Each structure stands twice: as structure tokens, then as C-alpha cells.
């Protein structure tokens, strides 16, 4: 049973009758047919919610590239310091670490405060970091960022597939085939206007869930659904031989 938040009053009795009349459907029980349509809509919302606001890998790669570039620049700037400048920075790191160690011992070092000491299990002990330690950590973090970016799989160009719509059309196909012997086919004009009864039903019924959804994407998933069913049918036939 889906959570109630995924259910809405999507189809009125008049809407359901109009969808059926336009597509030539004659369900034995229009009320039960409408309820199944609402169930299909709720399942779509449930599936769509799982993928909502998930960033694309290209967006993640772009986001991770920002700290990666800045780290690379920082490491290059540190490596390019003159001996005099490096000595001053080394001294500054030593003084900061010493101050942080004293604050840690006296219990005055806030856990979220910028610090150059790492507390140990013993509350009276800590490890102080020097400039060489910091450079190693920066290098390790840069490598970790590179590995994170490299592990992101490449995505196909164009729009990502809508798995909620794919599931919805599969359920509608089952409802269609249990209601009529008319083939569940997809034909459309060059302008993506549905021609066949099943295509017309799918486009108009889904747009009552997502009014701004383009016909082309609905028809694309409808075509894919029909192709998958044909392939499955051939596999079953071969297994039965």
C-alpha cells in the first residue's frame, strides 16, 4: 500500500468516461476502472519522487571540479613560495598549532573551531600538524576529489529517462489489455499528435497527471514499452519450444 500522500483526485468520473469514449474503451465497471487509473497515477508519483532532485552526474562533476581546481592552485602556490616566505609560513603554522594545543589541554578549544591539532582518545593528548603535514593532507584531498570525479559514470547526452513514466505506461498497458482486445499500439503524426486509440489514451491520461509534459516524451516511453513487450514475447515463445 502506497503512502496516502501520493494519491490525489486526478480523474473525475466525467474525465474517465471521456478518456474511454475517445479511445473506444468500454470497461464493465467505470468506477473500478477510474480507481485503477488513480492507483497508476499514485504509483507514478511514488516512483517519480524517488528520482526527484537527484543531480545529474555532469552537475556533480562540475561541482566537484571547483574545490579540485582550488586545491590544485593552493598546492602550486605553496610549492612556489620563496624560502623566506616558506619559513614565515612554517613559523606561523607552528605558533597556531601550539596555541591550539594549549586550548585543547585547557578545554577551551571548540570542536568546530579551525585548528591545527587532532585530538586523540585521551582528552589530554593531541597531535599537532606542521606545514609538511598540511601539504600531504591537501595532496590527499586533491587525489580523493580526482577519484570521486573519475568514478562518476558518463551519462548519455540529452534528456534522462523518466522511470516513473515508464512504470506508469507499463501499468496502463496491462489495464488496456485487460479491458479491450484493441491492440496497444503507438502511431503519431510528425508533430507528436497521437493517432491510435492507445496512444491517444496514454497522452491524454498522463497529461491529467503532468499537464506540461511534452507529447514526444510520453510517446517515446510508449514506443519503448511496446518494444520491450515484443522482445519478451519472443523470448517466452522460444523457451516454450
Automatic annotation (TrEMBL):
Q: Tell me the domain of life.
A: Bacteria
What this protein is called in its record is: Uncharacterized protein
